[in-house]
Hints:
It is built from eleven helices and 16 strands. By secondary structure, the protein is an alpha/beta fold. The chain folds into two domains: 196 residues, Vaccinia Virus protein VP39 (Rossmann fold, 3-Layer(aba) Sandwich), CATH 3.40.50; 142 residues, CATH 2.40.50.1070. Helix 4 crosses helix 5 and helix 9 packs parallel to helix 10. The radius of gyration is 22 Å and the shape is globular. The N and C termini lie far apart (50 Å). S-adenosyl-L-homocysteine (SAH) binds next to helix 7 and strand 11.
Amino acid sequence: MSEKQSDHQLCPVASRCGGCQWVQVPYEEQLRKKAVRFRKLMEPFCKTEAIIGMEQPQHYRCKVHAVFGENRQHDPISGIYEEKSHRIVPIDSCLIENEKADAIIVSVRNLLRSFKIRPYNERTGFGLLRHVLVRTGYSTGQILLVLVLTSPILPSKNNFVKALLKQHPEITSIVIQVNDRNTSMVLGEKEQAIYGKGYIEDRLCGKTFRISPGSFYQVNPCQTEKLYGKAMEYAGLTGRETVLDAYCGTGTIGLIASGSAGRVIGVELNGAAVQDARINARQNRVENIQFYQNDAGKLLLQMAEQGQKIDVLFLDPPRSGSSQEFLTAAARVRPQKIVYISCNPDTLARDLKFLTGRGYRAERSVPVDMFPYTEGIESVSLLRSLS
Length: 387
Ligand code: SAH
C-alpha cells in the first residue's frame, strides 16, 4: 500500500464511523505501535516475541453488519450508526470488511424498491428491513445472509431470493430473523432459513466449525489460525494431558487441542454456543471432549473442591478478562501450564499479576494482529507452575 494514500482515500467516513482509529497510520507503523505498547505492559512478567502481522491487512472482517434506513427523500440507505448516535452513515465499501459481503449488502439495497420492501424507519416505526448481516467462511467460501425484519413476512420472498442469487450465486444460505422490538439489539429471536442450511461452516486448523447467525466466531480467521497455532505450540501437548478450555465459545480451541490431548473439558456460559460446540465435536468425530454450560469460575472451583487434576489450562476470556474466583481456583487446581489468550492487554496484565503472585511464572508472550487499522491487540501468553 502506498503511504501517499490519504486518510480520505482509504476511507471517506473514517471520522464519523469510529470503527478504525488508525486509518491514516501506515501498517508497518501500526504494528510497531502495538508491539511497543504490548512489550511495555508485559515488561514486569516476561519478554515478548515479535508481533505477528498480516500480509494483506485490509478487508479481513468475515462478519459484516449493515443498518438499513431511509434518507429524507425516503430512499433506502445502508451503513453503520455514527459513533454514539442512531444516525446512519451510508457506506458501500469498507477498508476492513470482506468485499463480497459489502457488495451483497449494496445489491440487497438496490433490490428493495422493485420489491416494494421498505427499510425500517426508527423515527416513525414503519418499514420492514432493519439490519443485514453477512458471514463468510474464510476457507470454505460459504456465505450466509441474514435479513433482520420487523415482521416474518417478506413480500415476494421467492422472487427476491431468485433475483439476489442471480447477482450473487456465491450466497449459500439466507435466513430471516424477526426483531419487532424497539431495542438496539441486532439479531432477533425468531429465525427461519429461506434458502440453504441456515448456517455456514468454516475450516480452522484442520477442523470444521459451524457458524450460526448468532454464534461467536473470530472475525479474522486468517490470523486466528496463527493465534491458535501459537497457543498449541505454547501448550506443547504430548497426547496424554487433561486439558480445560475455559470461555470456550463454540469449542474451537478445545477441539483443535483434542487430537494431541488425552481428554478435553470445555466450559462456556452461553447456551447456544455450547450447543454449537457439541455439534462441532460430533461433526469432527472428536470423542474425548465434554462441554459444560456454566460460569468458568464456578466450574473450576468445583474441580478444585473435588481435587480434579488438569495439566493444561487454556483460557480465552472476554475483554473484561478473567475473574478473581476463576484465577484463585486455577491456582488451587494448579495446572502445569496455563495458556492465556487475550483480546485486551490491560486485563491480561492485571490477571498475570495475580497469577505470578500465586506461584506461576510467565515464560513467553506474543501479540497477534487480529484487528488491523484499529487499536485492538490480541495475544497468547504461557505461564508455568513453579511447584
Ligand atoms: N474461545 C472461543 C470464544 C472466546 S470469546 C473462540 O476463540 O472462539 C469469550 C467467550 O467467553 C464468549 O463465548 C462468552 O460467551 C464466554 N463467557 C463470558 N463470560 C463467561 C463466564 N463467566 N464463564 C464462561 N464463559 C464466559
